[in-house]
Amino acid sequence: MIVNKEQMLKAIKAVKPSLGKESDYYIKDGYLIASNDKCVGKYKLDGETENVRIPAKAIPLISSMTGDIKITAKAGAISIVAGNSKASYKVENTNADYLDDNTFKSYMDTNISADILNRAIKKLIGIIPVTSPRNILEGMNVVIGNDAIEFMACDGVRIGWIKTSAEAETPISFIVPRDSLKAIESMAFEGNVVIKVGENWITFIDKESKKILHSRIIEGEYIKIDKLFTDLDIQYKVDKRLFMDMLDKAKLIADGNTAKITLTLGKSAEIEYKANLEEYSDSLLLNSENERVSKNFNLAYLRDCVNALFDDEMSIYTTNSPKTAIVFGDSIVKTLLLPVYTGR
After folding, report:
1. Residue 43: how many CA atoms within 13 Å on its side-chain side?
2. Measured in whole angstroms, how far is the alpha carbon of residue 316 from the centre of its chain?
3. Measuring CA to CA, how many Å separate 48 from each of 3, 94, 212, 215, 262?
4. At residue 310, what are phi and psi to the nearest 5 degrees?
5. Whole-prediction pTM
6. What distance in Å separates the CA atoms of residue 318 and residue 327, rounded to the nearest whole number?
7. Domains and CATH numbers, the chain
8. Burial class of 330 by CB neighbour count within 10 A (0 to 12, 13 to 18, 19+)
């Protein structure tokens, strides 16, 4: 079969996060496929294709080749040819043995905007990186209602909550493993995405760009994150850009991802960093008459929470439960961050 190199590389980029550490790519039924124990990524290729297995170690060579690529499967091997370049790889089998489509049978489906899905995933990954070692709840909770969609994620010290107005055909709720989040982001869905929910799997289908992602779902109920963000009184209005500028400057001096700063809120927003004879302080006028509050935070976590907001102006809230937390929010995103206790 002949495969266009540019489309092949585009397909590889889309499904690569779904590839297991010891896995290979497959082409089956016209799709380039990558999979692991959490998710399965599929990207539709143009033209006629054959069912073949492509070793992951062949991808760097395919990337360096020029022109269209000819892939031929033989017993126990696969050959890849482009221009004057030719390579052969031994494979255990050349048949694209794969999970049958019956595995992904669904009992409920709905539609959401790809733009809403993509932005929410990107923001939640920004608040709580998928590589975070502190992830206690190993997934993202999605609640699709008749007039709004909520995306929620948390770890031991941060919570991200995104709520956006949107119409959906069918209300639905599910929890996606954190390992699937990068795979969803990499797919870069377009237009509208059909979401099909089964007993153990959820499927995202982008009919416009012919991309499919199957993800395992986590059984059970997510914690009621939304209750933490209700009945909050805005304590301070802050220019997000100027606030982030203070934090970015502090990061230039602070040491590593464990650096702690003191954030004081009152008539002004003040930050202070002291460690190993190094110091930095800065302030931003708030024109607030609220009671002065001072807490210690992990600087990296604080930057993630603020940077995830959409609007130029953000609100800062103090919470009743837990009383020690600070909430940063705008019209779409709210992030909750617990302080760091330094001890004496």
Report:
1. 25
2. 24
3. 9, 17, 19, 27, 61
4. -90, -45
5. 0.84
6. 6
7. 2-90 (3.10.150.10), 102-224 (3.10.150.10), 231-337 (3.10.150.10)
8. middle
Instruction: Tell me how far apart the alpha carbons of residues 322 and 341 are, in angstroms, rounded to a whole number.
Output: 14
Q: How far is the C-alpha of 341 from the C-alpha of 339, rounded, in Å?
A: 6
pLDDT tens column, 44-85: 999 888 888 898 899 999 888 888 999 988 878 899 999 888
d(CA 12, CA 43): 8
Do the beta carbons of residue 97 and residue 104 sit within 8 Å? no
Say how far apart CA 183 and CA 44 lie, in whole Å: 16
Query: 3-state SS string over 25-54?
Result: EEEECCEEEEECCCEEEEEECCCCCCCEEE
DSSP-assigned letter for residue 291: P
- Which residue from 161, 137, 139, 160 is spatially nearest to 149, judged by alpha carbons? 161
Angstrom distance (rounded) from CA 33 to CA 54? 10
Alpha carbons 175 and 225: distance in angstroms, whole number: 13
pLDDT tens readout for residues 126-139:
888 766 655 545 68
∠ CA 311-340-309, nearest 5°, is 10
Query: How is residue 127 written in tokens?
Result: 């608040």
CB 343 within 8 A of CB 300: no
For residue 248, which amino acid is it?
Answer: D
- Of 236, 220, 247, nearest to 303 by C-alpha is 247
Give 295-335 pLDDT, tens digit per residue: 999 999 999 999 999 899 999 988 765 567 889 999 899 99
The answer to whether 20 and 56 have CB atoms below 8 angstroms apart is no
The token pair that represents 31 in the structure block: 């799709």
Token output for 29:
């039924």
Closest listed residue to residue 136, CA positions, set 7, 67, 223:
223
How confident is residue 273, by pLDDT bands cut at 50, 70 and 90?
Answer: very high
Name the residue type at position 341: Y
